[in-house]
Amino acid sequence: MSRIPRQRLNAFLDMLAAERGAARNTLDAYERDISDYLVFLGGKPLEGVSPDEIRGWLADLAARGLKASSAARRLSAVRQFHRFLYTEGLSPGDPAAAIQGPRQGRPLPKVITIDAVDRLLGAAREACERAGTTPAARLRALRMRCLVEMLYATGLRVSELIALPLSAATTRERFLIVRGKGDKERLVPLNEAARLAARAWLEALNEAGQGETRWLFPSDGESGHLTRQAFGRELKALGGAAGLPGASLSPHVLRHAFASHLLQNGADLRVVQELLGHADIATTQIYTHVLDERLKSMVRDLHPLADGE
Fold first, then answer.
1. Which runs of consecutive H residues, i.e. helices, occur in the chain?
2. How far apart are CA 163 and CA 11, in angstroms?
3. Annotated catalytic residue, options 157, 225, 228, 256
4. DSSP tag of 182
5. Which is the catalytic residue, given 30, 37, 152, 287?
6. What per-residue confidence (pLDDT) applies to 216?
7. Sign of CA dihedral 191, 195, 197, 198
8. What's the whole-model pTM score?
9. How high is the pLDDT of residue 158?
10. At what angle do helices 114-129 and 135-154 cross, to 10 degrees?
11. Across residues 147-167, what is the average pLDDT?
């Protein structure tokens, strides 16, 4: 990549960080996607890029076997990049403005049943009470119970959950204040089971001499807290103990379950949007598929012209 496109990309990333509060993971993803695009351009000046060249890049992504959803994400990054160049006066036009993204069906979220969540929570609780476990194994079990209880109680993003401060375990309130995407704060509920699990975990952490930390789930890694990958691996292992297939379980699936089960039990879509921290309600609407059977049964059972069978 030549020097000037690299400088333009760095300026764009600086803007995302400063003005939009983009997280490190988000910045890394933008950098990867736009760098791929700049390599395809082969050093061509950005102010001379045409829509046809962007379409050529999309065709190249398809030829490489990239899924439509992944290509659409990369195109979104490139669109924002070109819009930035235009608004900053670094390009005479925006060649990406009229580009149509690859067509894609919106995938429905994977969701597990309320019964499956009950089994998962039950397995987490049993692991904490199992006789004969080593102190280290019990500590891991208490951490996993706390993670699962808090995730299903709050619907947090996994990145928000693993980076919770230690104070989340000591609050007397029935909610947490969470700083999410775009550095925006929101309130999320905290039920009694989650609060008890957090206190039990904190007590065990203090007994193990690891309580002097800013994180609720500390780790020796670079970030100082548990990683998403480690949590994902341990969650699949817990799922196996609960008799749930590993392919059906991830931290994000539990977030989906939180939203779907709320809607299934009559929660308002706007409330669920606020709890999840979605900026656009269209993102939350993907969960409404879980209402189909409930609505069908209501019509069948309550409509005056419904069959009595």
1. 3-19, 24-41, 51-63, 68-87, 114-129, 135-154, 158-162, 192-207, 228-241, 251-264, 269-276, 281-284, 292-302
2. 28
3. 157
4. G
5. 287
6. 94
7. positive
8. 0.63
9. 93
10. 150
11. 93
